[in-house]
Design goal:
about 90 residues; four-stranded antiparallel β-sheet; 2 helices
């Protein structure tokens, strides 16, 4: 996990959860390895969603990965608990 990503999550989502807890790092890693669903996102990104890792409001963990053009690689840009308008349950 890049330091820039941690700094971004701290700045944008720090009220939701303590970013640097080992359990949070494990949850992000688990979401990337075994998401319950994925979807294409804005700006050539992929959203990894784990409906089994939720916050107290029941919102799933979402991890965003930016694709690197011309490769099969990518880099994580952010993660947070939340919902979006396109979710079926809203």
């Amino acid at each position: 996990m890049y330091e820039e990503t941690i700094d971004h999550v701290k700045a944008e989502h720090s009220a939701q959860f303590p970013v640097e807890l080992p359990s949070m790092i494990n949850a992000v890693s688990g979401t990337l390895k075994e998401p319950t669903r994925t979807s294409d996102s804005y700006n050539n990104s992929v959203e990894y969603i784990n409906d089994n890792t939720i916050n107290r409001k029941g919102h799933p963990l979402r991890v965003y990965v930016q694709k690197i053009s011309g490769t099969t690689s990518g880099y994580m840009t952010t993660f947070f608990f939340g919902t979006v308008q396109d979710d079926d349950d809203e």
